[in-house]
Amino acid sequence: MSDYQTFTKSIKEKTGIDLNLYKEVQMKRRLTSLRDKKGFKDFSSYFNALASDQELLSEFLDKMTINVSEFFRNSARWKVLEKKILPELLKRQSHLKVWSAACSTGDEPYTIAMMLSEHIDLSKVSILATDIDDKILERAQKGIYTERALKEVPKSLKDKYFTYENSLYTIDARFKKAITFKKHNLLSDPYPSGFDLIVCRNVLIYFTEEAKTEIYHKFSRSLNNNGVFFVGSTEQIFSPESYNFRVLDTFFYQKND
Ligand SMILES: C[S@@+](CC[C@H](N)C(=O)[O-])C[C@H]1O[C@@H](n2cnc3c(N)ncnc32)[C@H](O)[C@@H]1O
Description:
33% of the residues are buried. By secondary structure, the chain is α/β, with parallel strands linked by helices. The protein has helices spanning 3-15, 24-37, 43-52, 54-65, 75-92, 107-117, 134-142, 155-161, 173-178, 209-222, and strands spanning 96-101, 125-131, 144-145, 162-165, 168-171, 179-183, 195-200, 223-231, 245-249, 252-255. The mean pLDDT is 95. It has a 7-stranded mixed β-sheet. Helix 1 packs parallel to helix 3 and helix 3 (43-52) packs across helix 4 (54-65). The structure holds S-adenosylmethionine (SAM). Residues 65-69, 73, 102-104, 107-108, 131-133, 136, 185-187, 201-203, 232 line the site of S-adenosylmethionine.
């Protein structure tokens, strides 16, 4: 077994995270650079240090997860959600159950909550927001952002739903109430079900083809009939029909009846 393979095995035993389900070339490059920066010559000495140093372990988890996010990321797609997909969903039902999977710092579930609140009373909405990374979920729950994260937020929403202080924006507390943040590993935890909309963007690109196939099946089972799956702008599904999906629009899939 190579130094890297032994490392992935030990990481799985220690954290439950299976690095082999992430694309190896990218992951290995990222972790090698971190390991070198920390001054370890191989993965086995790096793991020994990680195993006894909580801070080093947390830095490693941070690096492997890539937390970049922003509100209304790829804003044209959010317009499609608002103008085309949402009206159809709301025609069929008065309550909505939504899952923002791999939600990072919360920009995505708050975007969903803000958008929905313009069309439906938030008491009729429940949003589950999950991520593998505990630390990022703590930040998400605080709902505090820099200007950069808000660059795509329309001015009207920014004025209405954020308070600005000391160069930081805090999201209105009503949105925090609509969202339940929870730790969840898409590669190993059981999937919750009964959703009308699942948003999972900019994480599937890091996974192997086999892992993605499995995840698409699971998301499909998690959706109600006619529920919608919204993916990232480089994450089109190759053969949606194999997961009981049909294409509604680019990057939007609907589960068949
Ligand atoms: C690039 S961010 C995407 C954030 C947001 N969805 C967006 O599009 O802006 C990727 C997120 O995926 C999370 N992640 C990585 N592996 C995961 C896994 N196995 N299960 C759940 N979340 C994971 C990371 O912690 C990170 O917060």
